[in-house]
Amino acid sequence: MAKWDDDDDYGPTYLYEALKTFENTNADILGKRTIFMYFPKTKELRLRFPGREFKFVKRVLGGTLIAKKTVKQEVPFLNISLHKDSNFIKNTRAKGYRILSTSKNTYVYFR
């Protein structure tokens, strides 16, 4: 299961990186904690949360969530309008699932 935000930018190898990471780790959920953030008005590109790549973390950015099918089956997204991502992450952590932050590459968050 991969969650996408239509207003962000995903590189062509985004899913490939995730699949390779699943193959090489014991992570249940992947995402990005260190990200590039772009501000169109000022044309600035910033690095947010540096140094949190390839580490087990408590949370990742909602638009970068990728979970194994078994996780999604056991912990569905709640039918609420706010905080779906953070509730999903909280509920998966409560069940002992491991969240790994992948590289900062292949994704840009547009602010």
Brief descriptors of the model:
single chain; 111 residues; alpha/beta; 8 strands
Protein model, in words:
By secondary structure, the protein is of the alpha/beta class. The chain is 25% helix and 23% strand. It contains three helices and eight strands; from the N terminus they run βαβββββααββ. It has helices at residues 14-24, 69-74, 84-94; strands spanning 9-10, 29-31, 35-39, 44-48, 55-56, 66-67, 99-101, 107-110. Strands 1-8-3-4 form a four-stranded mixed sheet, with no helix packed on it. Strands 5-7-2-6 form a four-stranded mixed sheet. Strand 3 (35-39) and strand 4 (44-48) form a beta hairpin. The model has no long low-confidence stretch (mean pLDDT 93).
